[in-house]
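Consortium newsletter contribution from the modelling node. Members have asked for a concrete example of what our holo predictions look like. Here is one, prepared for the 3-methyl-2-oxobutanoic acid complex that several groups have been discussing at recent meetings.
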Amino acid sequence: MSTGKIAIKDILEKKNKQKITMLTAYDFPLASLIDRTGIDMILVGDSVANVVLGLQSTTQVGMPEMLHHAKAVSRAVKHALIIGDMPYESYQLNPEESVRNARRFIEEAGCDAVKLEWFEHCLEVTEQIVKAGIRVMGHIGLTPQTADKLGGFKVQGKDADAAQRLIQQAQDLESKGCFSIVLECVPDKIAEIITQKLKIPTIGIGAGVYCDGQVLVTHDLLGLFERFKPKFVKQYINLSSQIEKAIRDYKEEVIKGEFPTREHSFSIKKEELEKIT
Ligand code: KIV
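And here is the predicted structure:
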């Protein structure tokens, strides 16, 4: 399925022509499977904190964890554009360090771009990273790293003033050089307005049908994350129950002596065996 490596210009050219597809991955096996399908972009999301590391908040992961996972993903990917999600502390707690940290995603981990969530100094930080020659994806609406400041994990932009602020944020990020923007948990009509106003593509998650593209957390669509299921998630398969059944079957077979059998065993020639005292 792979047709060579996707470039940022390919993503930009898809606007108004073809929907852009994006999924998260944090490790080699899932990144390989996703890449094989021809998905456009793979996000090494800080959602790794919740869905893989069992943490409560995405703010609990830092650069070491994100680089570790990004390296595994880039070893697997031949086609998709890889985006490294900048962890909270790498640019919100420490804006001065943001360019250096963004560069580590590209140079050490093999990512093609970085993503950062909206915060107070987002525009200055975006501008600095873009000036350093690194491509940036913005993220507005529900920004999990600062969800406490937004009143929790809630749909954003539900009144005219809040919606107007989101539209302004999107336009400002575009003017600072972002190549695309994730819209998370935004009313569909506001996502439509933003999508129409921008030249760069919008990627929705809980943002309705009018965005230029769609992203989901892969563990959600595979049914591998059981703690909660947001309204915007479509689960395409329940892998948790299938994996659990396989593991129960294995356990039963080992206990009953049904696995391993001769077919899973190695042999030694009879004459060699006879030499053993
Ligand atoms: O970390 C993540 O998975 C994300 C997506 C929800 C866009 O930021």
